[in-house]
C-alpha cells in the first residue's frame, strides 16, 4: 500500500533530525526497509543495511589519510586520528567521521588487525646505522662461516618456564596460578659456532666484565665434540655492545687473551641483536624450558643445560643462514 505524503514528510524530517531508521520506524509505524526506501528516493544516501543509524560517508582523501597515519604510526589511537583530520584540514567538524566509522575503515577497508607491537629503536632508521651494518657485514664476511663465533649473555629466572599462552572460553581471560620468583636469577654465558654450542656457563645473579673474562679464559682451553680446540688461528669472536663488554680494563685484557691464540674480537653494530646467533639460540632454549615449567622451577640450572643440549646442529646452521653469514 502506498505511503501517504504526510508520512513521507515525517520520515524525511526525522531523518534530517538525526533519528536512526529503527527510531523512525517506531515513530511512523513503517518498516525500516520502507523508511530507507523513502529516504533513498528523496535524497542521496550511501547503500547500507537498514539496521541502526546510517554509516558515515568517508572520502578517498580521508581514507588515504587514515592509511598514511596507521602506516606511519601503527599505535596511533582513533581519537588521535580524528584530531589529526581536523588539524590538517582534511575535513571539517561536521564532516569528521565517527570512531566507529574510522574503526570500520581500518578493519574492513584497509584490512588491518590489532596485534602486539614490535619495537624498533629509532637509531636503526638512520643512514649512519645502515652504514655501520654495511661496514660490519663487509668485514665479517671476509671470514668463512666456520671461523665466526658468537658470544652473548642471557638472563634466566626460575619462572622462565611459565607458559605465556593458554585457552579459555571466548570473551574470557585465560588465568592460571603460576609460581613467581623473579628474584631467583641466573645468567647464561654462551659461545656458539656454526656447528654447535662451543661452551656455556651458568652463574647465579648478573654477569659483569670479570665474569666475561673468566669465561673466555676457560673457553680457550675447551674442546669441541670432535676433540679439537673450539678456537683456531684466524677465527673471530663477535659480541654486542653491552656496557661491560667495553670495560676500560677488561676489554683490553680480553683482546690480548684472544690475540695470543690468533683470534680477533669484533663488536656487532649497536641495536642489531638479529646479527648475533646467540639471540636465536636463547629463544630456542626458552621454548624448551616452557615445555616443563615445574622442572624448570625446581631445577633451573639443570633445565637450562638440558635445553641447550637439545639444540641441534642443524638449527644453529639455519640460524647462521638467517643472519646472513652463509
From TrEMBL:
MF GO annotations: DNA binding
Signal peptide span: none
Keyword RNA-binding set for record: no
Stretches assigned to the Paired domain: 1-109
Keyword entries, A-Z: Paired box
GO biological process, alphabetically ordered: regulation of DNA-templated transcription
This protein's name: Paired domain-containing protein
Organism: Pinctada imbricata
